[in-house]
């Protein structure tokens, strides 16, 4: 007796509905490891959640020079800002930089700090090259809650405050992250990965504004983040522009 194709489909759907949510990747990197998928333009790294000492944007509204996401090490040694990251990856900044290039990421405009300072701020004569530039990058944080997986975009963990007609308005954080690579190319040793303003200290930045100024006013949302010590995987997906 043949089984109806519709019955087979119904059984398959029922089976899928009862399965746990899929893991964020077919494989998981361990401590210090980075996995690359050129087919997906994707990099996956291992880390943990940390609750740093109070600082800008962590407990109240503020302007932050340090990324929420960074590495514990650089090739020169411990990262300068390792104790200020919420999402702490346990590999080097240079490993992430090389992995992003290996999956097709390109960086178009990058600067050392001395040159970046000359280009800072939104002015009447601001030019396109006063913005750090490169391929857009989507970033997400994945972790396990019991038997289920959760994954949220990096920008979901903060809110932004802007001035509108003399009033302060709270809105979602809406960064535009691009891969510029300056932090690795010029050995800043900050450990920063995804900076919340157009900053040459890291390797990925929000380039909605020109270098350094203006900076967004942000506040981290601890209610969205898993508890300190939670093991996480950070996914970087490069969106090529060529």
Overview of this protein structure:
- The longest helix is centred in the N-terminal third of the chain and has 14 residues, at 5-18.
- The chain has 4 helices and 16 strands.
- The strands form 4 sheets. Strands 1, 2, 3, 4, 5, 8, 9 and 16 form an 8-stranded mixed beta sheet that branches. Strands 11-10-15 form a 3-stranded antiparallel beta sheet, with no helix packed on it. It has a 3-stranded mixed beta sheet with strand order 12-14-13, with no helix packed on it.
- It has 242 residues and is α+β, with helices and mostly antiparallel strands.
- It is globular, with a radius of gyration of 20 Å.
- Strand 3 and strand 4 (77-78) form a beta hairpin.
Task: Reconstruct the topology from this structure.
Blueprint: H1 5-18, E1 34-37, E2 42-49, E3 69-74, E4 77-78, E5 87-92, H2 93-102, E6 107-109, H3 113-118, E7 133-134, E8 137-145, E9 148-153, E10 158-164, E11 167-172, E12 177-179, H4 182-185, E13 194-195, E14 204-206, E15 217-220, E16 231-238
Parallel strand pairs: 3-5, 13-14
Antiparallel strand pairs: 1-2, 2-5, 2-16, 3-4, 6-7, 8-9, 8-16, 10-11, 10-15, 12-14
